[in-house]
Write a structure and sequence with these properties.
heterodimer; A: 253 residues; two-stranded antiparallel ribbon; 2 strands; 79% helix; B: 312 residues; alpha/beta; Rossmann fold; Alpha-Beta Plaits; six-stranded mixed β-sheet; four-stranded antiparallel β-sheet; 10 helices; binds adenosine-5'-triphosphate; binds magnesium ion
């Protein structure tokens, strides 16, 4: 195992992150604050409470999930797409690093960044609403798993993409809608029965539901099912990445 | 035992194009091999395959006794690669980029080594500059520095001096010579024949995915050390007068010129004698010229020969 190689990739990715610290940290804080102003104050004043939790506090887990998913995905997909685009990937392909080490470096860094941002948003949220965390360990576990699995998914997109448009395509067309429709800002029980059924086919629902449970003990689906869903998603992503490196798909001629 | 052993290496790209048609090549430890060939000959493909960016279709390669597929980690650890294109992340600083390459190859941080590499490539002044602030020639040197960061035993240089000025080219040759002294095996591709002449121990010529010739440079140079004197005659001669017959001399078919091949390095070239004998034989000369064949001639000749065979 080339651990120093993993470290080199990880640190290089992290330093890129800190180089653009404003973009990396400040913008999620600002956008979260805006969400609280718009959703929490404007809409929240009409919705009042969801299952005994104030609406402002209710959306905190969904908001964190929304940001963490999009950030993990974007960071990882860009992280691996960039060296492909500039051609510097030759160095990784000719170095003694295997697929697992590449994944640990790139996905590890992307997940770390997403995790940071998630925690920053959580901290920001406490300024606006009263946040309660009933199961802190489960909360952290869900957060880390989500960061990791979406970073894995982003890694696949970054390898698949052959131009910048494709790089944006999947996040825009699939992930963002799924995340918004997965109950980030509402409880599924608030929907009409038909849409409730449809929503249950949305994998993101399971992640948000589990995460929200760790805060307020409220869940749209059983927690075990949430865990199973996220484990399944992670496993599928890992299998795809393993296959990519075995065949060299979109990496080696 | 050759340090790099290439055996029946074939590469067929996805589109079905066969870029390497069964390459066999052995490279000794510590030698400098220059790979010459026209555009599209397969030089970069050969290097990419050995280094792991391209998967071989058939055949095998070992580096330092390690198979590049089965024992890829050990094989790659020995190799440093300087690619043909300047592929380098623009936003990083020079020292950081070089240190990164070392880490990627699994070696412990070693600032002294990194500084030494930077110094050898005259990059010390630029160590803290961002790559995008460098000139093209400097970027190429950063690529070399990155390749040397992990102390490779073999260095592949894919056209290291393309677009590099004369002075810098000379200094790169010195760097290469210094590496050779440390026992590093070097394979370089180039379009400059004088570059191959200046630094290579052996020269391989490749065209259309096939190696046409591999020969020691001194043997080649010996061939090149020969010169040809062409004497054009005023009047057609039917046969060579007996007084003129000697090694290396021939009458052309049309009887209008005499060619004489001689060794410029020899103590006596025999030219004075020949000229005396020519006038003694009563031949009137119309013109004289001498011509030295170059590596380029051999190279062009080989490639043209292959082209003709292909056409036939
Ligand atoms: N990824 C690829 N897919 C398909 N064909 C390729 C690919 N890369 C190279 N080739 C083809 O393989 C042949 C050899 O290319 P290669 O880059 O090895 O040549 P080269 O000897 O390095 O040339 P140059 O001196 O121009 O650098 C060319 O005909 C090229 O078009
Ligand atoms: Mg080339």
């Amino acid at each position: 195992m080339n651990l120093l190689g993993v470290k080199a990739i990880y640190m290089a990715e992290m330093s890129r992150f800190f180089r653009t610290v404003l973009q990396s940290f400040v913008s999620p804080v600002i956008s979260t604050s805006l969400y609280f102003v718009v959703f929490g104050s404007a809409i929240g004043s009409r919705i009042d409470q969801v299952e005994g939790v104030s609406y402002g506090a209710f959306i905190v887990p969904g908001l964190i999930m929304l940001t963490v998913m999009t950030q993990g995905l974007a960071n990882a997909s860009f992280g691996i797409y960039f060296p492909k685009f500039t051609g510097t990937i030759y160095e990784h392909l000719s170095a003694p690093v295997n697929f697992l080490e590449m994944v640990l470096g790139y996905v590890g860094a992307a997940a770390t960044k997403a995790l940071f941002i998630g925690l920053i948003i959580l901290a920001t949220a406490t300024f606006f609403v009263e946040v309660q965390i009933q199961h802190p360990l489960a909360m952290l576990a869900f957060l880390i798993l989500t960061c990791t699995s979406f970073a894995l998914f982003g890694f696949i997109i970054g390898i698949w993409a052959q131009n910048f448009e494709q790089l944006q395509l999947i996040p825009l067309l699939i992930v963002t809608p799924l995340v918004f429709l997965g109950g980030s800002f509402y409880s599924v029980s608030m929907l009409p029965p038909f849409w409730q059924t449809v929503t249950h086919f949305n994998p993101v629902l399971y992640l948000i539901s589990g995460f929200r449970w760790s805060f307020y003990g409220l869940a749209d689906v059983p927690v075990a099912m949430s865990l199973a869903a996220i484990a399944l998603f992670t496993a599928i992503c890992l299998a795809v990445i393993w296959w990519i490196f075995r065949t060299g798909w979109r990496l080696r001629d | 035992m050759a340090f790099i052993k290439i055996d029946g290496l074939r590469k067929v790209y996805d589109g079905g194009f066969e870029a390497l048609k069964g390459v066999d090549l052995e490279i000794e430890e510590g030698e400098i091999l220059a790979l010459l060939g026209p555009n599209g000959a397969g030089k970069t493909t050969l290097i990419s395959t050995i280094c792991g960016m391209t998967t071989p279709t058939a055949g095998s390669v070992t580096v330092g006794g390690h198979d590049i597929i089965r024992d890829w980690r050990a094989a790659r650890s020995l190799i440093g690669l300087v690619p043909q294109e300047i592929n380098i992340e623009p936003f990083t600083e020079v020292r950081r980029a070089v240190a990164f390459s070392r880490g990627l190859f699994g070696l412990k941080r070693n600032d002294a080594h990194v500084d030494d590499v930077l110094r050898r490539l005259s990059l010390t002044d630029k160590a803290d500059s961002k790559i995008m602030q460098l000139s093209g020639g400097m970027k190429r040197r950063v690529l070399i520095a990155k390749a040397l960061a992990h102390e490779p035993r073999v260095l592949f240089l894919d056209e290291p001096t393309a677009g590099v000025d004369v002075e810098l080219r000379k200094s790169m040759w010195e760097t290469v010579a210094e590496l050779k002294k440390q026992g590093v095996t070097i394979i370089l591709t180039t379009h400059y024949i004088e570059e191959a002449e200046a630094i290579a121990d052996r020269i391989a010529v490749i065209n259309k995915g096939e190696i046409l010739l591999v020969e020691r440079k001194d043997a080649l140079m010996k061939r090149l050390g020969r010169k040809r004197l062409v004497v054009e005659l005023q009047h057609k001669a039917d046969a060579l007068p007996d007084s003129l017959v000697r090694d290396g001399l021939a009458l052309s078919e049309d009887g209008l010129s005499i060619t004489y091949d001689y060794d410029t390095q020899a103590e006596r070239t025999g030219i004075t004698r020949l000229l005396q004998d020519l006038s003694g034989a009563g031949l009137t000369l119309r013109d004289l010229q001498t011509r030295q064949s170059s590596l380029e001639d051999i190279f062009v000749g080989l490639v043209a020969e292959q082209e003709q065979e292909g056409a036939a």
